[in-house]
Predict the 3D structure of the following.
Amino acid sequence: LVVITNFFPDQLDRYGSLETIINLVQDSLPPDAHFILNADDPLVAQFGLGKLHTLYYGVEKTPESKVESNESREICYCPDCGDELSYSLFHYGQLGLYGCLKCEYERPQPQVLATEVSSNLEGITFMIDRKEYYIPLQGYYNLYNALAALTAAKRLGYKDREIAEGLKKFVPQAGRMEGFILPEGRVTLTLVKNPTGFNQVIQTILALKEQKIRLLIGINDLGADGRDISWLQDVNFELLGEEVAWIEEIVCSGLRAEDLASRLGDAGLESKLYIEKEPQKALARIIENMGENETVFILPNYTLLFEIRELLEARKVEDKGSQEESVFIREKSKG
């Protein structure tokens, strides 16, 4: 069983071009593989062409879906005729509803389709075939990860209730929209490492309406991070600049803190910036200044992630409320 979620540029100085990665994946797959594919990413959906054993998953729309997008994304081409694909709806990046105007190729119809998607500070709720599911994660890329797992579980014969329970109880990997309850309040730690993922994090933060925002962003350029940080130019920090009135402070940390601050300043956020290259001191500033009912996110890249996470682990308190929540799945009444 082969599950393919999406393709995005990430540390190209280490891994090569996106086209190279896609070709390597294609060349590595056995001809009799059974596929679980993201229908909304045309770079992934093309893997199912001519394959008998393929299940697609997708999203009808999210609260952030748009008919037009100026977000940095891959230009995708029709796998049949080679013409550029046209979109009727963008979810994020190159994910959305698409088709070819020159021939009849279009986004495959997902057998597993998420509808009625909604999110809040705690997680995402969505419907599939009149059943409600919940994941304790933010960010619509996590919705797609959940759909991939859900579709694979269905293919392997798990029951809906078992799947819902697994999603509800899921504990995220370190730094993947990971929440920490500190004596001073709640903070969310999430890894940022490419423009598309960073843009989704920004969208998630801004979707938490009418709450003051406090951020710590840490960027290193060590080997595991990728030496080239020019990808920061493709992050849509201007979205934060448009909401500058809601920004309390952005602390820039890490080896490339000054470069990060320069990019944020270009986005209209200069008055909100504070540079502290030392991660421990940067985190202390965020914690000491965070106010009641603020949205606080800590956004490091790879080599800063675990250092900051250890500091948060040392300060966290138990979140008893989340431990006592019961697993649920309910069916909507028909009609």
About this structure: Residues 320-335 have pLDDT under 50 and may be disordered.
